[in-house]
Amino acid sequence: MLVFSASDKGGTGRSVTSCNVAYWLSMKGQKVAYLDFDFGSPTAGGTFEISRIDNGVRDNTGLHAYLLDENGTPARLSVRSETDRTELSRSRHPSGRLVLFPGDLGGSEFTKLDPQMIERCTNLFVTCEQEFDVTFVDLSAGRSIALALALAATKQVQLSRAVCRWLIFHRWTRQHIAAARGLVHDDHGVLDTGEAWGHDRIELLNTLRFVRTAVPEVNVTAGLRPAQAAWLQEQHNTLTRAANRHGMGESGILGKIPVEPMLQCREQVILDVDVAAHVANAETVAAFRELAEKLTNNAVWEQVEVRR
Ligand SMILES: Nc1ncnc2c1ncn2[C@@H]1O[C@H](COP(=O)(O)OP(=O)(O)O)[C@@H](O)[C@H]1O
Ligand SMILES: [Mg+2]
């Protein structure tokens, strides 16, 4: 299965959530690949706490260089062998794997898409499909060439049988909801671009679900003045109505990740030891695990309706 993580804005929690979901899938025994297709800002290495590739590899062996034909085979690293975090390296399922295909430090967003790039990208996805149960592709924000590349590659005949799922990440604010809706439905968005590369609009829409990140708990009023609590509740109601209107309400979302204090100051995978130490909230890990389950359980995935 190929999972494309997309968002209109940067800073939505797309990468951190995807890394955590990838980790939890590997903890269920799945073989998981993580492709850093955020070419201008490839920070998945940092999130997996592999400090020497915090912002991508330095030797031109990453995905940016691979797509430009500057290396024949892109670098791949076992997260558990390479991470600096001992607890992460030890926290494993006997048959699970988590492999990072990093980006390049000093890479940049692509400005054009050529047939050779599409071919190389297709070959990479085919290889991943053969070797892994789930492949995450963390795409650059917005209407990027990375997005078009993913849509072009998945329409190639070699991938005609691959299961593709799209996750659109957004924060729980007015602008983020509008932006995520726009990324899917507006001009040059996912559906427009997909159609231009031969996808059927409705079929493509059916492969797409929204994920809300860093959602504040509105019922918790501790520490808030009554006026603040009332105002927040009113805003939350307005956001809920907007999301429902755009097919991003309870029926269109695959998951909700609560605000997690740990992630507010550091991008990382949250482990059971962090919850046991009372540093991370158990609800956050539960939300990541639930998202991993919903993403890979066909019956649950299908239950989430998408509005046309
Ligand atoms: N559930 C969450 N609660 C609090 N902060 C979060 C949460 N998810 C992500 N963050 C933080 O938000 C910032 C942006 O997240 P990131 O995954 O880098 O976004 P993107 O990939 O969309 O640009 C990071 O500092 C990250 O740690
Ligand atoms: Mg990111």
TrEMBL record:
Pfam families: CbiA. SUPFAM superfamilies: P-loop containing nucleoside triphosphate hydrolases (SSF52540). Residues 5-45 form the CobQ/CobB/MinD/ParA nucleotide binding domain. InterPro entries: CobQ/CobB/MinD/ParA_Nub-bd_dom (IPR002586), P-loop_NTPase (IPR027417). This is CobQ/CobB/MinD/ParA nucleotide binding domain-containing protein. It comes from Nocardia terrae.
